[in-house]
Amino acid sequence: MKPLLKLTDVNSYYGKIHALNNINLEINEGEIVALLGSNGAGKSTTLKTISGLIKPKSGSIEWNGKSIVGAPVHKIVESGIIHVPEGRRIFSGLTVTENLELGGFTYRKDKKWVKEGIERSFDLFPRLKERAKQLAGTLSGGEQQMVAISRGLMANPKLLMLDEPSMGLAPIIVQEIMRIIREINKQGTTILLIEQNAKAALRLANRGYLIEIGNIVMHDTAEVLREDDKIIKAYLGA
Ligand code: ATP
């Protein structure tokens, strides 16, 4: 089976800073893949490179067998790749529903389609339905993260890339977010998950990649990574 997304020898830079060094990564349809690594390792840069925000200097990125290197961001979005960035950039002065509407309309100017997207989100996050008219800025951190994920889902993505969805959240909320990510995956969306919380990520993922200073240093099934000494010592807090 061909991978849904395949990065081959991808190199990305910020000026002279070589942030990604010959990255090779594959994601198959239906998988949850975790991208692990400490601060500054290159996780966000990997997502930005896939979503077209950063153009790699060399290497190939194939999506459904076609190159997307150099494609405009909106084309990449239209092709089904959605990136939910770190830090839940939601509109705090707008209600939950307005945030989702705005998200939906950036993808497609179709009222019925947007309405259906919001209903899907509310099925997935009943807590957001209860808070539909509440200003997003007054929500808890976990609820704001739910809005950010829901907004990404408005596009009906094939691949949802989540950058640190658990950041700053209490453990019980992290569990809930992880449960919802599993549910999104069950409903047919492939997931690329960036996490510093390796424990939570490896519980959820099928496979994982470990990135250190711009290099993929390990990749395997989540089962194997959970038992790996280096991962345990450096990332699982043992
Ligand atoms: P974090 O979780 O801290 O965001 P990360 O693994 O996502 O970590 P990246 O944000 O991808 O790391 O950063 C990779 C490297 O690129 C780091 O050395 C970082 O300092 C550098 N970098 C990131 N963004 C920029 C930028 N806009 N300009 C210059 N260097 C950057």
UniProtKB/TrEMBL annotation:
Coiled coil feature spans: none
Highest rank taxon of the organism: Bacteria
CDD domains: ABC_TM1139_LivF_branched (cd03224)
UniProt keyword list: Amino-acid transport, ATP-binding, Nucleotide-binding, Transport
GO molecular function, one term: branched-chain amino acid transmembrane transporter activity
Pfam families: ABC_tran
Keyword presence, Transport: yes
GO aspect biological process, one term: L-amino acid transport
Domain ABC transporter: 5-238
PANTHER family: HIGH-AFFINITY BRANCHED-CHAIN AMINO ACID TRANSPORT ATP-BINDING PROTEIN LIVF
Family assignment from sequence similarity: Belongs to the ABC transporter superfamily.
Protein's name according to its UniProt entry: ABC transporter ATP-binding protein
